[in-house]
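Q: Got one fold?
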Amino acid sequence: MSHCHDEHEGHGHGHGHGHSHGAHDHSDDITPALQNSLYKQIDFDAINTLNESSSGSGSKICKKTWDERLNPEPELCSDADEQLLMHIPFTAQIRLHSVIIRTSQTDSAPLTLKLFINRDDLDFGTASEVQPTQTLSLSQTNDIQEVPVKRALFNTVRSLDLFFEDNWGRGDEDETRISYLGFKGEWMALNREPINFMYEAAANPSDHKMVSGVRGEVGSRLGGAGGGGNGM
């Protein structure tokens, strides 16, 4: 197996239940990219990735903040073959808008991505057989891809499974590599316990307030992580 390294161009589109176009590079579009980020709604500790060559690497690429999106490491690499299956739970109910991903311009870039919502029973066998919520085609590029989903199919998401079925090697490359993964959308808290949530008070991302509320209120949150980074 070749060593995972960064050779990270492009747009993507979806098909299956829905068909979508318009994925584009947000590398220099920082403020809009942070709006509707679901970074803070990801349950990082509960992420499970099947066939990852390094334990925990699936979670680590999701933990990267938006500021870290171009960093080559950590990187998720497949192990025994080109397939990867990620289970990503959320701490809130999500309405998914798009998947944000960075791969590479090599044959190890994933090609077919099947999305499943609210499943906790998937393995490679079932993911290959059952109908996905939506199937997306990814570009062979080292740019940041924002791949829209058909929102009507992703209104009540509590967990998302991502099945990277193949890569651009089309059978000739056993390693699939992904260096960044994020999501955009809207969220609603899962229960009615009191919470504090962030909301955008002005166009300036640094100008926001803490508001006490109750779970069940809809909000969007600017992502962030320790050290002042902006999450995605």
Observations:
- The longest strand covers residues 84-102.
- The radius of gyration is 17 Å.
- The chain is about 10% helix and 35% strand.
